[in-house]
UniProtKB/TrEMBL annotation:
Name of encoding gene: LOC105355271
Annotated stretches, region: Disordered: 140-191
Pfam families hit by this protein: zf-RING_5 (PF14634)
Coiled coil: 95-122
Compositionally biased region (Polar residues): 167-187
One function term, GO molecular function aspect: zinc ion binding
Residues annotated as domain RING-type: 7-46
Organism name: Oryzias latipes
Record-given protein name: RING-type domain-containing protein
Any one GO CC term of the record: synaptonemal complex
Domain of life of the source: Eukaryota
Keyword Transmembrane: no
């Protein structure tokens, strides 16, 4: 047992006739001093407590309190190193993920900034163009005559005065047009063919398209043109 383990009342170490124990309130007391005090009360702080003798049969929690600090340190440092390594690895992965995410966000931000600059440039160009067009329209409006004068001029140009336009009757609608032409047509159709036309007709197989009415039809037409006295 370590040199620092002693009774908190008599400050003596463990011996053959003196056995040490630990109380639930955290004090070490020997069996001789414990008998001097009240049962179930700590001789040091007078609080109610229970005692656990220090031996090989003590609980693991009690043994841990009295273990060698170097052994405990080595054991716990190994466990701590494992815990630190595990946590650090996952923290680095998370940090790498956030770095990549920030890089993508920065690239997106740069692209959006460029697009906004291009849009602002286009808006400025369109504003200049609109201002130029408005100025041109104002100039044209100033140079053009008033609307009232234009409407009067167009109205006077399209108005027709009564009797100004003379209507010429069509020759087809005139009475007697067909009657004056019909005798000449009938005379032409009833006339005999000339020798030249007859010779041409005999030489070629072409048939004259001239309509040849029957003798009764020619007689009726002749009676209409030259009525009998």
């Amino acid at each position: 047992m370590s040199f620092w383990v002693y009774c908190n009342s008599c400050f003596l170490s463990a011996a053959a006739d003196r056995q040490l124990a630990v109380t639930t309130c955290g004090h070490v007391i020997c069996s001789v001093c414990y008998q001097k005090g009240k049962q179930k009360n700590c001789l040091i702080c007078s609080s109610q407590c229970q005692i656990s003798p220090l031996s090989d049969k003590s609980s693991s929690e009690v043994k841990t309190l009295f273990s060698d600090i170097n052994v405990v340190t080595t054991k716990h440092l190994t466990e701590i190193s494992k815990v630190i390594s595990f946590q650090s690895r996952h923290q680095r992965k998370l940090l790498t993920h956030y770095k990549k995410r920030n890089e993508k966000l920065e690239e997106t931000f740069v692209k959006m900034k460029q697009e906004m600059q291009n849009m602002a440039k286009k808006l400025n160009e369109q504003s200049v163009y609109i201002a130029k067009m408005e100025k041109s329209l104002q100039h044209q409006s100033a140079m053009a005559p008033p609307v009232s004068q234009m409407s009067r001029a167009s109205y006077s140009a399209h108005v027709q005065k009564p009797g100004a336009v003379s209507s010429r009757p069509s020759s087809q609608n005139m009475p007697g047009f067909h009657s004056s032409q019909s005798p000449s047509v009938s005379r032409f159709q009833g006339a005999p063919l000339t020798p030249e036309l007859s010779a041409f007709n005999h030489r070629s197989a072409w048939t004259s398209p001239i309509f040849k009415p029957s003798s009764s039809f020619r007689g009726s037409m002749s009676s209409l043109v030259c009525p009998s006295p």
